[in-house]
Specification:
The chain is 80% helix and 0% strand. It has four helices and no strands. Helix 1 packs parallel to helix 3 and helix 3 (65-92) packs antiparallel against helix 4.
Length: 127
């Protein structure tokens, strides 16, 4: 099994999400009242393995690669917006941009919905 460039990028972004999740967890443990950082850390740590799984399912042919990539991409975009907004609010006391967190939340939900489709739509069989 060879990973396409987009799959490698998504896997690397999943690794970055895990790394940032650990870093934000540590920061939240040392900053009083950093509940938003704790939430961001949890979201990063919960979604990183899901992104890796989607990449693996698509690359191995267990799911349609296109659907898996869309689902993983939506999860990455959602994490950037949602966790980015929570982190910027915690450290800089202003929003990333108006409605960034809700947009990220909707992208995360859309990613999970497309992930459900990955599980339900059979992968194409080689002819």
């Amino acid at each position: 099994m060879r990973l396409a460039g987009i799959d490698r990028a998504l896997a690397a972004l999943a690794g970055l999400a895990g790394l940032l999740g650990v870093a934000l967890s540590a920061a939240a443990a040392h900053i009083p009242g950093a509940d938003s950082l704790k939430t961001a850390a949890q979201f990063l740590l919960f979604h990183a393995p899901a992104i890796l799984a989607l990449v693996g399912f698509g690359a191995s042919g267990l799911a349609r690669a296109g659907l898996a990539r869309v689902a993983a991409g939506l999860l990455v975009a959602g994490l950037i917006l949602f966790c980015g907004d929570l982190s910027v609010r915690a450290w800089l006391q202003h929003a990333l941009f108006p409605m960034a967190a809700p947009a990220g939340g909707f992208a995360l939900m859309a990613g999970w919905l497309v992930g459900i489709l990955c599980a339900l739509v059979p992968a194409r069989r080689a002819a």
